[in-house]
Amino acid sequence: SFVANAWMSSITTRNLIILLPPLAVLLAFALRRMPVEAHAVLTVLILVPVLNNFRVYFTSAPFRETLAFVAPHYDTTDRFLMTGIEEPRHVAYYLSDRLPYPVPKENLFLVGYGLPDTNVVLGNLDEALIADPGPEHIDDFVRALEDVDRVWYIYNELASSVVQPFLEILHKDFGIYRAAAVTSEYNTYYLREYRRIPDDLHDLVRFGAAISLQGWRLPDGVSVRACQAVPFESWWRALDAPGAELGIGLVLADASGQGVAKVDAEPSGARTIDWDAGTYHLDARVLDIPCDLPPGEYPLLIGLHDVISTEPLPVLSADGAPTGSNLYYLTTLTVTP
């Protein structure tokens, strides 16, 4: 094991599983047959290199954090688009090894990468590497997105410009649902989860001149209970680039119009300052119903506001006419005992 460690970058868990049992048996037998002085010498000879010479393994890429982001929502029909990552195949193999189901090679698009000089010992994903996208690669990507509900986009600061045609195709039918930046000692990965845009979206109401509420839903329905966490999803479209940090406020009001519950935060996906004109965005949040809220009917309202100045955006009708309000009525929740 010491010789192997001198030539290997690290001793993996698999190596140790193979090496330790026979070493333990051999050591026990040797100690039993040797005098006490030899016991002391062997103990020192083992502890010194173990504590000082074995190389320390550093995680050079945030693979675990990437896995934690993907795993809760992963499905075998998902597609993966990667660019800028120093060795994207390592990420792909790690995900395939740790996700509940492996990622098929045909679901991977590693853009901006030429063929390597040598094959990686973990396997071969050369078919997924796209150096200079041609029409055939674009057509393959379009076909791959048919009847798919989710796409994962993974990139870093070195994201290749050749990925742009793929992103343009992605943004036609998908909106960002979740976003995160995960960092290790050496790398930062930017993670995006895209969801397919529903066919029935349309302008419900506008907030200011740049943002339109396109649709919303309460997965658990409008009948709720005190102490319940109520999930809420809403689709938004950037009519123009907002150019500001905006937050979404979901408010449950009583009969007098006073707020009795509220959740106020930036979108669950990309920040609004990064929204491009024409793009769609899916927000997901949870409204906690107070445990002491009396049974009854409570209007559910939504609004947008500037995160920095806290100024609310005015609500406009779908055709742009002012409504005189800063909140838009969605529905009425019925709180049951």
Quick recap:
The chain has 337 residues and is an alpha+beta fold.
Main beta-sheet strand count, sense and barrel state? 6 strands, mixed
Number of helices: 7
Note the overall shape. extended
Helix/strand structural class: alpha+beta
By oligomeric state, this entry counts as single chain
SSE topology string: HHHHEHEEHEHEEEEEEEEEEEE
Residue stretches low in confidence (pLDDT < 50, at least 5 long) are 118-122
Using only C-alpha atoms, the radius of gyration works out to: 27 Å
**Largest beta sheet: strand ordering:** 3-2-1-4-6-5
Helical coverage, percent range: 10-25%
> What percentage of amino acids are in beta strands?
25-35%
Keywords, separated by commas or semicolons:
337 residues; alpha+beta; 7 helices
Notes on the protein architecture:
- The structure is a single chain.
- It is built from seven helices and 16 strands.
- By secondary structure, the chain is of the alpha+beta class.
